[in-house]
């Protein structure tokens, strides 16, 4: 069985359990501590400033990040390879007239060239072949359009070791380890699109569980932000936000 099928089945199971647990009544998402939300908050702030209309979200899962997009000015097409995850999104967001969904493989996007003004991805790059995904999102994005990505960075040895432990415990497939974004992949995206800027977050995320024993969430949040700004972390970062613009025809 291929890793792609393994991951699809894994997320189908998660979505089914999610529906069973909530019984269709309470489909709210889990709220992370503030010090872990910083990269995603920055990601949403970037998207909020984009005034273009037609947006494609790839690897949307059960819509953990979709509702904030729907509350902006976008017409959102949220997609995932897991049919059960898309079912969850359809239940969550049925009230939104600017919402549509589709079961797709991000390596083979079923859209015409230059179909979308904006494409976004939150934590999904490792679930597809990096080169295929890059070529596909470039193809379906309009010239002058934006690709915005928030994801984990895989250059820090501490985080790499933790992800390997999760692989050994059966929580992720081998291909997702190999495809985790790194600085080299970020540079490839920037070269392909013609323009890009990136911001890095959380070189100290690994120590947060220890800090929580002695510091409040608010103090950890302030300390983490100060550290990232002071030392302009890059290779040691936990997360990054990449903003690209398709300048080439």
User: Which class do the helix and strand fractions yield?
Assistant: alpha/beta
Identify the strand order in the major beta sheet. 3-2-1-4-5-7-6
Which residues form runs of ≥5 with pLDDT under 50? none
Query: How many helical stretches?
Result: 10
Strand proportion, as a percent range, falls in 15-25%
Order of helices and strands: HHEHEHEEHEHHHEHHE
The average pLDDT is: 87
The counted number of beta strands is 7
Structural write-up:
The structure is a single chain. The chain is of the alpha/beta class. It contains 10 helices and 7 strands. The chain has helices at 3-22, 34-48, 66-70, 83-92, 130-140, 157-168, 174-178, 183-193, 208-211, 217-231; strands at 54-58, 75-80, 99-103, 116-122, 141-152, 194-201, 239-246. The protein has a 7-stranded mixed sheet with strand order 3-2-1-4-5-7-6. Helix 2 (34-48) packs across helix 10. The radius of gyration is 18 Å and the shape is globular. The mean pLDDT is 87.
Summarize the structure.
The protein has ten helices and seven strands.
What is the topology?
Blueprint: H1 3-22, H2 34-48, E1 54-58, H3 66-70, E2 75-80, H4 83-92, E3 99-103, E4 116-122, H5 130-140, E5 141-152, H6 157-168, H7 174-178, H8 183-193, E6 194-201, H9 208-211, H10 217-231, E7 239-246
Parallel strand pairs: 1-2, 1-4, 2-3, 4-5
Antiparallel strand pairs: 5-7, 6-7
Helix pairs in contact: 1-4, 2-10, 5-8
């Amino acid at each position: 069985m291929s890793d792609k099928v393994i991951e699809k089945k894994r997320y189908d199971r998660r979505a089914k359990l999610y529906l069973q647990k909530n019984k269709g009544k309470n489909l709210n998402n889990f709220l992370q501590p503030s010090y872990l939300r910083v990269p995603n908050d920055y990601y949403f702030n970037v998207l909020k400033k984009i005034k273009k209309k037609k947006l494609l979200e790839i690897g949307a899962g059960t819509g953990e990040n979709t509702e904030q997009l729907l509350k902006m000015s976008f017409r959102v097409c949220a997609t995932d390879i897991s049919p059960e995850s898309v079912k969850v999104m359809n239940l969550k967001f049925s009230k939104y007239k600017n919402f549509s969904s589709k079961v797709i493989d991000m390596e083979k996007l079923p859209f015409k060239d230059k179909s979308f003004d904006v494409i976004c991805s939150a934590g999904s790059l490792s679930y597809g072949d990096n080169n295929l995904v890059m070529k596909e999102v470039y193809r379906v994005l309009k010239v002058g359009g934006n690709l915005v990505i928030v994801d984990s960075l895989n250059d820090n040895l501490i985080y790499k070791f933790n992800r390997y432990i999760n692989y050994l415990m059966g929580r992720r497939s081998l291909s997702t380890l190999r495809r985790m974004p790194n600085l080299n992949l970020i540079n490839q995206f920037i070269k392909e699109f013609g323009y890009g800027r990136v911001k890095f977050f959380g070189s100290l995320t690994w120590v947060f569980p220890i800090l929580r024993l002695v510091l409040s969430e608010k103090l950890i949040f302030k300390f983490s932000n100060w550290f990232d700004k002071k030392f302009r972390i890059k290779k040691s970062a936990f997360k990054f936000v990449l903003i690209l613009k398709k300048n080439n025809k």
